[in-house]
Amino acid sequence: MKSLKTRLIVVIALLVTLCTAVLTIGSYLRMKAQIENDLSNEIRSVASSYNAVLSNWIQVNTSLVDSLSKGLTEGNDLQASLKMVSRGGNFLSVYLGQPDKTFTNFPANPPPAGYDPTVRP
What we know:
mainly alpha
């Protein structure tokens, strides 16, 4: 590295390499932050959508159970009320266990012998 030309080439190459490295790292960090921000916003949006759907589902099914409760206290037929709730809520099965250990379900499917609907595992 005795000549001025060689020294200038080496200095310019180092400066170009340094500038390239700084720009690359800066771009990487900026893009990483932007991607993390976008993903966070997307996750919040999806969670909010699922929250709305779940809240609506809970509200509808709570209304169905309240309706069933009111109907039964008014003396409506238990099997017909369970059938109505099953079809209204699009449930595969609806059942009621009572304190006197009787078990009623729709569609009718007898429980195993000795089943106690007032005790859950």
